[in-house]
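G., the chain you wanted modeled:
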Amino acid sequence: MQAPSSKSNTQRPRKMAAKSPQFSQSVKLKYVKLGYQYLASHMLACSLIPIIITLSVILLQTGPEEIYQLWSSMRFTFVQTICFSFLAVYASTVFFMTRPRTVYLVDFALFKPPQSMRVSFAGFMEHARLGLFTEPKSVHFQMKILERSGLGEQTCLPPAVHYIPPCPNMALAREEAEFVIFSCVDTLFKNTGIKPKDVDFLILNCSLFSPTPSLTAMVINKYKMRSNIKSFNLSGMGCSAGLISIDLAKDLLQQYPNSNAVVISTEILTPNVYKGKERAMLLPNCLFRMGGAAILLSNRWSDRRRAKYRLSHVVRTHKGADDASYRCVSQEEDSEGNVGIMLNIELMRIAGEALKSNITTIGPLVLPASEQILFAISLIRRKLFESKLKPYIPDFKKAFEHFCIHAGGRAVIDELQKSLQLTAEQVEASRMTLHRFGNTSSSSLWYELSYIESKERMKKGDRVWQIAFGSGFKCNSAVWKCNRTIEKPATGAWADCIDKYPVHIPEVVKL
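Predicted structure as tokens:
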């Protein structure tokens, strides 16, 4: 999401003054402590590794005769042997039953809109002029936003938005939901070979469209899934809801062995097009486009070889306790009763604070020891000696090979690239996704991951960092490790255009 250019519903938008705070300016110690608490929770298991290695080395250095003499010197009664065997079996059982289960990402599928739903710049502006012919300033504002948005000419909107005037009714909203969601799920089932009745958990997140019966019920009805499937419908959680769904699926798969989960992330635009004239509420009309993703997760040992990724970490940061953060993105009515999404001018500053908290927490989990030591030394020096000394900012490029930053808008990508000191290639997937598909809300991270795969850059052992923002205000991260080298997909959302990318995106596209 980009920062708005208005201060309130009634005031004229002005140039955004609030910038994302630099991560180097301040680091809250409580978030560093939180990251080390996550790390310490697995310290017992980690401490056993050097002990096992030491015993193995000693055993290998001991000859067969010495081992036999040691065994002969140990005299066990029958009862002692039985008790020892029972304890060994019991300890092994407890260990394997309580240890965290590995969560695999088997595969994912994306929605690819048809060309008939494409919205060109000229077409978008023509609709804006016809819809707001009495408000030339609002039309001009949309043109300025579109010129600097970073979007291309291939993005798509649902049929209801192509009407003049738009027709955001419930029937067309359900048609869009069925078209987007069923397309993704059909492709996922085809690519993975999983049958609908084999799905154990179904999680669907759609922030602004939450009908009754729910969207998960719609999916279950379409595919005739079994009656004891556990379904979850997440709404109102913004563009970061996709990673919230992943976190929920992870928690479920940790508790239920030999299970799988289908996660669906989308945003239905038909009922949410804004038909008023408030400029801060017109901004989402310029940025949001059709998109959706379906992901298959599993904890089954049999899926480990064919799975694309393993889930390493999910870190969620919620700033909703702060009033400004809570209100910076909200669904409201304007003075004429038109419903839309209001973006506050403080959005980029609040997003920067949430990002700082999130990456400070995730740092101890992912950064190499050298970076953590330098950061710790810097922190101690600031606390004990020089309080004005700037903290050492860890180099996250040493922790990850690939970055997927939510393609919410050009300003979001620019600020994160600057804050994390990323190269142009490391944010290429985010910029190209925004150009080709627009802001597809919670599914944008998966279009970016698919871009990296289509460019044949994903190798075995590579680490991927997904970062997303959402209303509330939230910043969520997920870390994946590539399970196998991934070949260029023959089909998919990028198949017909990947060879044309990357493209040059000018700062301003004159319309």
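Residues 1-18 have pLDDT under 50 and may be disordered.

Shout if anything looks off.
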